[in-house]
Design goal:
The complex is a heterodimer of chains A (266) and B (254). Chain A has one domain. The radius of gyration of chain A is 19 Å and the shape is globular. In chain A, 74% of the residues lie in helices and 0% in strands. With 266 residues, chain A is mainly alpha-helical. Chain B folds into two domains: 126 residues, P-loop containing nucleotide triphosphate hydrolases (Rossmann fold, 3-Layer(aba) Sandwich); 88 residues, P-loop containing nucleotide triphosphate hydrolases (Rossmann fold). Helices cover 37% and strands 26% of the residues of chain B. In chain B, strands 5-6-7-3-8-9 form a six-stranded mixed beta sheet, with helices on both faces. In chain B, strands 2-1-4 form a three-stranded antiparallel beta sheet, with helices on one face. In chain B, helix 6 links the parallel strand 6 and strand 7. Classes of the chains: A mainly alpha (266), B alpha/beta (254). Chains A and B meet through helix 2 and helix 6 of A and strand 5 and helix 3 of B.
């Protein structure tokens, strides 16, 4: 079966995947002064700005709906980190086949390598940020609850979901080059349509619409575990798992269908 | 790795290219030109036209032909880069295409990083690359302190030598060369030629695409002349190359 063959190929070329991912990571910050620290600074600075804007400027702090500023910052961070991974993954991996057209036209390489390696690089960024986040918040008297044990599962679902989407995007983007740009804009919209900087409760009457947003369910796992310190409910796990595996399966299917004639459009 | 027999078998292989007005569907173009009749702007042609070939273990083939004859396209079908539009492609043996060496070289990465990356693409693990690194460095005559500099700072000669030295580490079963010898001083070209001979003699099958007939004569036992996607002549190297040279000479005169 093709899927199995593709998976074996990916394993056979694993060194290339790793090399490409590490090249990606190295190149991102190679000539900048702060270097890799930017990977962490970016979400931290964003968080600082958001926290400042929404608490001081909008006075959310006193509304009681969000609670103390520190609390809010934690909430935003719990949602922002996985979101950041999603966006970076979609953008980078989405363009990966197009960016590597010159090598694809010279030597046979399993095309999956490219979106997978970029997603892997972004995933490592995400893990690094996650560790850094915990380091930072442990300084502000955050004590993780047992729910933290559920974190690896949430991370895995996030990875599966993102991989599925990026694989499909990378192939679609070869045929319709606008896709990358379209996705960027949609994700900007998505950021506001997903309860990251506000809690789901705020949109009480429209909650159902927000629950239609697949990102909500993935992000929610992280918010539950990190901010609430609670295990996500069985329902939440089920929906997130269905979305993740669904994205992987559908994403791969789209990719497989588009793969064969891809080369002629590069 | 079992030292089994390699062979290449092509039966009625076609490669059809459809030339679009522009390769991708663009939303912008659709909006600006709603009445653009894209359908009529397609042209298709056969880069490879009904080619049937058998290349057996031990053969050294020179593929010659004028520009646009379909030589590179045929090689790319064999290498698995292009899928044939129709026909059967049967390949036994691992293929190592050396189509534009340094294809995977990334200008921002260092020499060392590029070697590991391209080594992986060509099938070498990190451990193997570490083992081979000194030999590669030695053969390429690149000073050790350059190894950790971005290759964009290398001269084109250095880049070629680096790529070539890596390629020479391979022990390919089916090796495909496509127009590789360009930059390099006389000394290196001489050294490289000898190294190439060693690589080729160790390979099961070699296919060389070149316009340099001297090079073809040196390495090939069999010649295949391709023109406009079809096989014009296929036989012993000396015979085919001579016929081809004569035809090209005649064409120039007319």
């Amino acid at each position: 079966m093709k899927f199995w063959q593709d998976f074996k190929d990916l394993y056979r070329y694993r060194e290339v995947v790793v090399n490409l991912a590490s090249a990606d990571l190295k190149l991102r910050y190679r000539r900048s002064v702060l270097g890799y620290a930017w990977s962490l600074l970016y979400p931290l600075l964003n968080l600082a700005i958001l926290a400042l804007v929404f608490t001081k400027v909008m006075g959310l702090r006193d509304t009681g709906k969000v609670g103390a500023m520190r609390n809010y910052a934690l909430y935003v961070f719990a949602g922002f980190l996985p979101w950041n991974f999603l966006v970076n993954g979609f953008w980078g991996a989405g363009a990966s086949l197009v960016n590597n057209e010159s090598i694809l036209r010279k030597i046979y390489l399993p095309k999956l390598i490219f979106p997978v390696s970029v997603t892997l690089a972004r995933f490592l960024d995400f893990l690094f940020n996650l560790v850094a986040l915990f380091a930072v918040i442990s300084f502000v008297s955050y004590s993780p609850s047992w729910a933290i044990l559920a974190l690896p599962a949430a991370v895995l679902l996030l990875l599966l979901f993102t991989t599925g989407v990026t694989i499909a995007l990378s192939a679609i983007n070869v045929y319709i080059r606008d896709t990358s740009h379209l996705v960027t804009v949609l994700m900007q919209l998505g950021f506001y349509l997903t309860p990251i900087i506000y809690p789901l409760k705020i949109v009480e009457n429209y909650q159902d619409y927000f629950l239609l947003n697949p990102f909500t369910h993935i992000i929610r796992l992280f918010q539950d575990i990190i901010w609430q310190g609670a295990f996500p409910s069985a329902d939440e796990w089920q929906i997130a798992a269905a979305l993740s595996f669904g994205a992987l399966v559908i994403g791969y299917w789209i990719f497989a269908r588009l793969e064969r004639k891809l080369i002629f459009r590069l | 790795m079992a030292n089994s027999q390699s062979h290449i078998n092509l039966r009625g292989v076609n490669l059809q290219f459809t030339v679009y007005a522009s390769k991708q569907f663009s939303v912008r173009e659709r909006i600006l030109n709603p009445f653009m009749f894209r359908g009529t702007e397609k042209r298709s042609f056969f880069a490879v036209n009904d080619v049937s070939l058998r290349i057996e273990h031990g053969e050294r083939v020179a593929l010659v032909g004028p520009n646009g004859a379909g030589k590179s396209s045929l090689l790319k079908i064999i290498a698995g880069v292009y899928p044939a539009s129709s026909g059967e492609v049967e390949i036994q043996g691992k293929i190592t295409p050396l189509i534009e060496m340094g294809a995977g070289f990334h200008p921002e990465l260092t020499g060392r990083e590029n070697l590991f990356l391209n080594g992986a693409i060509l099938g070498f693990s990190r451990a193997e690359m570490r083992r081979r690194l000194p030999k590669i460095l030695d053969f390429s005559e690149i000073p050790a302190d350059f190894l950790d500099t971005s290759i964009k700072y290398y001269s084109s000669g250095m880049q070629t030598r680096l790529a070539f030295s890596l390629a020479m580490e391979l022990e390919p079963q089916i090796v495909i060369f496509d127009e590789i010898f360009s930059a390099g001083d006389a000394h290196f070209v001489e050294k490289a030629g000898a190294r190439m001979e060693k690589l080729i003699s160790g390979a099961h099958i070699m296919i060389l695409v070149t316009h340099d007939l001297g090079l073809a004569r040196r390495f090939a036992t069999r010649g295949i002349w391709l023109d406009r996607g079809r096989v014009v002549r296929d036989g012993p190297a000396e015979e085919v190359l001579q016929a081809y040279a004569a035809a090209m000479h005649a064409r120039e005169k007319s």
